[in-house]
Structure formats: structure tokens, C-alpha cells
Amino acid sequence: MGGGEVPAAVSEAFRRLAEYLADATDRAGVSSYSVNMGGAIEESYQRNPAWVARAMELSGAADLLRPYKRRA
């Protein structure tokens, strides 16, 4: 694996996916949510592991990376 410049499409895909995943207000993919207010406020989310793959699609990152996909 060599170094060098990262293609602009790859950088943009990374930025889009990172922003999508970091959006704390986004409840997409949440399969379970709980709040416990007994003494201290506690919040918990559980997501299906396939959510990250869906996030690639919903963020637009997958479209940008399509030219880099290896064909079997």
C-alpha cells in the first residue's frame, strides 16, 4: 500500500460518512432506545450492525466510492 494523495472523491465520501455517523440527532437504524432517570440521567441506543452499511448509502458515500469497487 502506497502513500500519496487521496482522491477528492474518497475524501468527500469520508467526510459525508463521518458527518452522518456523528450526527447525534439522527435516530436512523435505532432498534432499541431506553432512558433511565433514577438518580442520574442515562440514555442508551442499540443499532443493528447493518446500520453502518446503510449509512454508507444514505450519506452518499457509496455513490462516490463506486468507481473504486473491485469486480469479482
Could you give a short description of this structure?
By secondary structure, the protein is of the alpha+beta class.
Subunit organisation of the chains: single chain
- Widest sheet: strand ordering: 1-2
Largest sheet: 2 strands, antiparallel
Structural class: alpha+beta
Number of strands: 2
Helical stretch tally? 3
Low-pLDDT regions? none
What is the ordering of alpha helices and beta strands? Answer: HEEHH
Q: What gap, in angstroms, lies between the N and C termini?
A: 20 Å
What is the typical, i.e. mean, pLDDT? 82
Shape: elongated
Q: Rg from C-alpha positions?
A: 17 Å
Estimate what percentage of residues fall within beta strands: 15-25%
- Helix fraction, binned, reads 40-55%
- Count structural domains: 1
